[in-house]
Amino acid sequence: MKTLMFQILMACLLILSCTNKVEEKMEPVSKPKVNFRQDGILQIKTSGDKETTFAIEIAQSQDERVQGLMHREVLEENQGMLFIFPETDYHSFWMKNTYLSLDMVFIKEGGEILHIEHSTTPFSEEAITPSVPCLYVLEVLAGTCKAQNINIGDKVSWKRP
Predict the structure, then answer these.
(1) Could you tell me how far CA 16 lies from the centroid of its own chain?
(2) Residue 2's pLDDT band (boundaries 50, 70, 90)?
(3) What share of the chain is helix, strand, coil (3-state, %, to 5)?
(4) pLDDT, tens only, 120-160
(5) Helix/strand/coil for 24
(6) Which of 22, 61, 68, 78 is the most buried (most CB within 10 A)?
(7) 21 or 52: which carries more pLDDT confidence?
(8) Euclidean distance between CA atoms 113 and 153, whole angstroms
(9) CATH superfamily assigned to domain 40-159
(10) What would the DSSP string read from start to end of the chain?
């Protein structure tokens, strides 16, 4: 009986020591800080003829679109990310690994805003899909669209330097 108890105790100690080693190996890896890269300028002309200008980072390749603003902890009020897709479709987004709450502006080929998703939830894995197909999506800080009176039907244009 003593031998059995000793074996059980040793097995428990072995399991505990292995668990600690696994936990040590699973510590979060710190991600390198990603700085904003200005690729162009985007302007939105509202129905009241007001223009709002953003410095934009462009996500055009598949890898850039997948990465998006994940792991970013800072985005200035006058900055955004423009996603350019190869074709018009119902492009879905999620907020996995995204620290910032965002406004997502879904835009059709001619530059007209079709849908706005206001104040997304950081880290959410729920799909955000517009009600209409689009070709472009602009992400800006949450609250920007309301503060700048940006609405469906407003016109968007951009240029690269």
Answers:
(1) 38
(2) low
(3) 20, 35, 45
(4) 999 999 999 999 999 999 999 999 999 999 999 999 999 99
(5) helix
(6) 68
(7) 52
(8) 5
(9) Protein of unknown function DUF192 (2.60.120.1140)
(10) -HHHHHHHHHHHHHHHHHHHHHHHHTSPPPPPPPPP---EEEEEE-TTS-EEEEEEEEE-SHHHHHHTTTT-----TTEEEEEEEEEEE---B--TT--S-EEEEEE-TTSBEEEEE-SPPTT--S-B--SS-EEEEEEEETTHHHHTT--TT-EEEEE--
Lookup result for tokens 């902890």? 73
Using the predicted structure, report yes or no on whether residue 102 has a pLDDT greater than 50: yes
Query: Could you tell me the pTM of the whole model?
Result: 0.80
The DSSP 8-state label assigned to residue 51 in this structure reads E
Sign of the CA dihedral with 59 first, then 94, 117, and 89 last = positive
Each domain of the chain, given as residue ranges in start order, spans: 40-159
Tokens of 92: 């879905």
